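### Sample
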Amino acid sequence: APGYGDSPPVEMVVTAQGRRTFLDHVLQELGMRRPVLVSPSMSGRFALPFLLAHGDRLAGFVPIAPVGTKDYTAEQYRGVQTPTLILYGDRDTRLAPQALQNLQHLPEHRVAVLPGAGHACYLDKPEDFHRALLGFLHQLK
C-alpha cells in the first residue's frame, strides 16, 4: 500500500477520505464489481473507510485484526450491511481483541478464531485460514 513499507509516501493517503478514494480507484482500475475485500492488519486504514462509505459495493468483508477499528463508532459500524467474517488468531492478544470489540457491531458478522495462530494467522495456520475463508465465501449470495 502507498505510504507503507518501502513504497514512497503519497499525499492522497494521508486522510481516511484519501485512502477510501485510493482503494476505490484501485477496484475500478481492476474492473472489480462487488468483490470480497480481505483486510489484514495495516490495510484496515484503507478498507475500513471504504467499507463504511461503500459497503454496499462489496459482496463481503474479511477483516483480519485490522488497525484503525477504534477510529469509528459503534453506530457507524451498525449502519453497514456487508456480510463480514471477522478472522483472527487466538495468539494475537494485542490487536485482535480490540478489533473484535469494535467490529462486532457490524450487524452481518460472524467470527472465526484460528487456534495456535498469531497476528498473521494466514501464515501461521494457512489450511485453517483457507478453510474459514472458503466456508464464508460459499455462504455469500
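The two ends are 29 Å apart (CA to CA). This sample (ABHEA protein) is used throughout the tutorial notebook.
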